[in-house]
Amino acid sequence: RDGPSFLRPQRNAQGARARALKMMRRRCSALSVLGLLLHHPYPPTHAYNPYLDRLHQAGDHSTSAIHVQPTRNPDQLLSSIDHVLLQSKLLLEKSEIVKRVDADHARDAAACSSLSAEVDPSTPNRIDYEWMHVKREGKQYPIAIRTTGTNLLLDATSIQQIRSAAERQWKDPSSSGGTSRFTYQRKGNLEAHLDDLAREDSSIQTIADKLLLSKVYPLIRNAFDSLVVDNMNSLRFCVYDSLIIRYNATEARSGMDPDIIVGAGQPLHRDLGLISVNIMLNSNDDFRGGGTAFENQFSDDVDSQAPLKPVGPGHALSHLSSERHAGASTMEGVRDILVMFITATNGGPLMRSSAPALERCARLKATARAESSRFENAMDAALCRAMYQRLAIDAVWGDGEAWHYLGMALRDFHLAQTLDDVSVVEQLSLDCLLHAAELTPCDARLYNNLGLLLGRLYMKRKHRVFFDQARHCYEKSALLHRNSMLAGCDVQNEFDASILNYGLFLANLDRFREAADVLASASDVNYFVKTKGGGASYVLTDSEASHLRILQDA
Fold first, then answer.
1. Quick one: which of 57, 139, 144, 471 has the most CB atoms within 10 Å?
2. Beta bridge partners of 246
3. Beta-sheet pairing, 292-294 with 275-280
4. Which helix (H) or strand (E) is 293 found in, with range?
5. What is the pLDDT of residues 20-48, one digit of tens each?
6. Do 544 and 66 touch, CB atoms closer than 8 A?
């Protein structure tokens, strides 16, 4: 064998498949053995599979903490990373990077200035609400608030006016509605910007101003005071973006095989703002499925993995924009919501306002890869990404995703050096990912990347603990992806990538029967759903089925 050179962090399914297929061609003899072990390309879902059996039997053990420990505490880790970043060409630009991010924040806040900003932060909150928690390892973790009681954010008349205005815009091809600055639009989804509707219709402007000034701003100030990193007294809320979104299950399925069940939704993401507010615009009786599925619900040891919804039309669900979540698939009918992405200024002139810490962190993470593309040298590009993620951690120390991305940037910096030994940088990368796992224990992407890195370390050091923990991480990644699919999230490509990486790791160790079991499990996603889903439905599309054929051919 020529070693584990194929083990790379797979950040997207297309790259994962392309690299995997290239690797497969180089290892024809090993993969022909896998083909023989699989017997035929479409194993029946009822066939015994040791890997599937282990996943289903795993329970809490497969979602427990990783046993490999960081070699440094977070302060020591960042100090060591700062020494590495001394090589970065961006070191002298740190303050300029933050200034550019703050300028982008101010520009985007000004783009929605037709919607009223907060004037009086002492306005009392009159909306009842309850906190929604997940219980994990005996602790309550808050993920969102849900409004309750009879005092609605929007009454039936206001809802009808907003929906009618949006429908007029959707029917008008010459509509002035622009592309959202945030959302991931997919087949079956329609959107209309509230500020566009308000400029065209004064009655919508009146509804929006009353909603924001007397209800939304007082509600989120009261509810999220203890969770926002900044001093809330110094902040004045404003709208970053606001959309009426329609999820149309019928439209999402148009032109597709009627036997294939798909829904209208959005993938897992974080919002670019401070606080997100999701107001329900039509009855639960109008659709099936839908809701907001939070990543922190996907662990096997939480009390409920069902997507969250407002209690009825006019009520809201609200959460920190940094909470990773998805629009669970609407499987039948039409679901309409009004989403408001709220940011804040520091009370001074808008164009000189600095971004709140949570938003600054989000913007630094989001722009890192694009900024790194201006460097031709792979080492400089990786250090650029690392610098942006390091600044994101300065903004929000406990942002697990920033630690995750910092670790992957350091790993790419190590790989660009073409070193065969285990370098200090590679150990720093591992420490970052392990710390990220403590902060974001339900991020399936993180465990896939941990599996890749631990597998590489096992190849170099031959320590059994690295092998055991690489397996643990791959299996946890598969479980978390499975649970997110059960909640209605489309993570098929990510599931494919983690299964393929795991199978290739085992094949590279000549553990061909185990590799065959793992690769065959990719065809059993529906088996997961049928046995664990409690009535949920997830059937593969034609594109996804072709992806599975690639795995099964392996």
1. 144
2. 190, 336
3. unpaired
4. strand 292-294
5. 444 444 444 344 434 434 433 333 333 34
6. no
